[in-house]
Amino acid sequence: MQHEYPRNGESTHPSSKKPKLSSKFITESDIRDEFSHHQQRVARINNGSYGSCPNSVLTAQRHWQLQFLRQPDAFYFNVLRDGITASREIIKDLINADHVDEVSLVDNATTAAAIVLQRIGRSFAEGKFQKNDTVLMLHCAFQAVKKSIQAYVTRAGGSVIEVRLPFPVNSEEEIISEFKKSIEEGKSNGRKIRLAIIDHITSMPSVVIPVKELVRICRAEGIEQVFVDAAHAIGSVKVDVKEVGADFYVSNLHKWFFCPPSIAFLYCKKSTSSSDLHHPVVSHEYGNGLPIESAWIGTRDYSSQLVVPAVLEFVNRFEGGIDGIMKKNHDEVVKMGKMLAESWGTNLGSPPEMSAAMIMVGLPSRLCLDSEEDAVMLRSHLRDRYEVEVPIFHQVSVDREEGVRDKDGFITGYLRMGKLAKCFIRNEKAVIKVGAGFHGITSVFCRLLMRAAFTVFKESYKRGAKSSAEELELLTNVI
Amino acid sequence: MASSLHDAPSAAVNGTFAADAKSQVHKKPRLYADPSPPLFTPSDILSEFSHHDPAIARINNGSFGSCPSSVISAQNDFRLQWLRQPDDFYFNQLQPKILQSRTIIKDLINADHVDEVSIVDNATTAAAIVLQQIAWGFAEGKFNHGDAAVMLHYAYGAVKKSVEAYVTRAGGQALQRGKQNGRRVRLAVIDHVTSMPTVVIPVKELVTICREEGVDQVFVDAAHGIGCVDIDMKQIGADFYTSNLHKWYFCPPSVAFLYCKRSVNNSDLHHPVVSHEYGNGLAIESAWIGTRDYSAQLVVPKVLEFINRFEGGINGIKKRNHERVVEMGQMLVEAWGTHLGCPPEMCSSMVMVGLPACLGISSDRDALNLRTCLREKFGVEVPIYYRSPKDGEEGGVTGLGMQSINLLTMHSLVLLFPIHKLK
């Protein structure tokens, strides 16, 4: 089916204008249909990792894919570039960028990090930066970003400063204060901080960072460039790149903005430095500017970059559009997080105003989560045995005296709750798992706790012994 | 419609295929225990490619390939599995399935070990990987400023730019003429089958010459290689070899392999998009470069199944493609009084056919205009190449690339006959 996609994005910031295609909003049964391809029995509480893509967008994507396969040459010459530009125009308006030239589409935030850091690496290699000049990042930066820094900065002779974020965190001031301390350290011994990488919403543990304030501090302290890794931001918090004021800002549209895997935008504020940015996969478009380079990196399937108009159409079928969706997600995840923390006697990892569509909920200390391995095991157990998909975070306690306690001991684990609000998934069969997934989690954990032999479970998983598994089954059934 | 042109996939399927010593150098991997799935019938083939625009004669298979419906279907199944429960797919399915594809490819190309085979998007990405390690060689002082990378004049545009981005920028020289002033040649980039104009290069011989001349490393850009010419890593002997499977090997866009001989210091090869897998070897790094759709990399088993339903498998297909395209090329040069771009034995599944001088093509722009005109007015998709005159020669040369299963290309050639009337 042929859609008439808007070729020129809406010209005003979405918070001031709510375009509606019809006066009728999306219904619950529409929503059920849109997500009918999700595995019905699984409670998806990890929307943050891989997102959710509605059927109408998948259909639009298939349309683009088929169009390419029908006549790929004509598609390449006549359709592809315009389609990508249309998506970029929409994104430019959504994020309040000045010019579409500032918006490039790439696969994901991981790719964007490679682009920005490769440039930093070149500057070290070409002698523009002194050896040991620094790059600043958060201690809990995404692992791919850390590795990218290793691959491009450390290897080229740069040094790295990590800002240790307090967690659980109680206020923005705590973060700002740690940030300022690290800047001092980064500038010590006559070094220059060449780049600061700041998450807008950290991944594990997940907290909304006061980026606008941190960017302002960077400018005041003479940090040359700031790169905001906002992988989770769009569709989750308001994104206004001019307000944030960073040089580079990346966000994945396939997490909270209903796009299929995968598509992200990299915003690069127009300045002299943005002219030396290149996509690491070099095509014949090399030198024509990052947006053009990124729009052709060899033969591949670009269809996920072409469906942004269809996604906007989908989002605008909800009352309040993306703003309405964001609010519902936030309200619901906070409500559910509080409910769990109360019923377990634990805590939230951050106050509600420092969370968006995800929240960290302390796990009962009696689970004795003592390592990253335990966290992985628990996650697998929840997936395999209870069909609940939720990431588990192990909190390494730096100073036990300052750790948070519940009535039984120190809280060493958190789950990251991030799901689309209940209104999205209302399926009679799945309601036990998904629509009321939180209740599911509560009962699961109650059972695990009541066994009080969680250590037995851990041991048996490690040994993989069949008899222990049988033991476990017995225990679980009894309870 | 000349019936002699109307092919018969039946002729293709039932045609004599004399197995010769060269055709089965190494074993054909078969994944299925079930005894020979039936060979394709003409109507099977029509339905496998029913999604192609029926009004267009596709004579440019070389650029974007052709993917059969059964493979697209398999790909959609994988996409759906991911969407159903992505975390589970990530933790439990993705890596084993990519490994399965890599293992099949390893057997197809006669590599020693699956660790030597990485899957990437396309040859363009492979070039970036190989050239990036050269750039580090310069940046870290392993190479001297002025040491060179050598490539063919007809190297693919993206590869030339990649050499500029990674080698020249890092202080190396990009040469088309070989060693100068006693500097070392750190890398030679050789095409197996050039793109425009298209010619099969004697890579085995060139690699031998490189070794004799003391070239550090040889990278064979065989974007058109697999499914088009015979490829045997041990025979060719290059350090790096890349080929796209979405050109002549029926894969959807996009999937390519990069072979890296084990003797090379592989620990220094990295995918430029760095994920948490950094440092775990190129094959593992390439298998996770952030959240994206990896489905094209997972359908290789299904593609093998498809290919084995042709008589002679991929070797049968290659042979028939070559014979057909040479036959058609010769028919055209006779009709137009021109010549082929190279002798038949240096053609693969693509051939360059000289265009009549009366067309008056005298620039790249003219060539592109002709191509657009052929697409829009005549429904023919074919790349046109222009080379500026040497020694009084004139004229553009057309590249024709086709596969035996595409019936429509036969019809299109009839349309091309009155081409001299275009002017």
Automatic annotation (TrEMBL), chain A:
Residues 83-273 form the Aminotransferase class V domain. The keyword Iron-sulfur does not apply. It comes from the Eukaryota. Residues 1-23 are annotated as: Disordered. InterPro entries: Aminotrans_V_dom (IPR000192), PyrdxlP-dep_Trfase (IPR015424), PyrdxlP-dep_Trfase_major (IPR015421). It holds the Pfam family Aminotran_5. The keyword Transmembrane helix does not apply. Keywords: Pyridoxal phosphate. PANTHER family: L-CYSTEINE DESULFHYDRASE (PTHR43092:SF7). This is Aminotransferase class V domain-containing protein.
From TrEMBL, chain B:
Pfam families: Aminotran_5. Residues 93-266 form the Aminotransferase class V domain. Coiled coil: none annotated. Gene3D superfamilies: Type I PLP-dependent aspartate aminotransferase-like (Major domain). InterPro entries: Aminotrans_V_dom, PyrdxlP-dep_Trfase, PyrdxlP-dep_Trfase_major. Keywords: Pyridoxal phosphate. The keyword Nucleus does not apply. This is Aminotransferase class V domain-containing protein. It comes from Hibiscus sabdariffa (roselle).
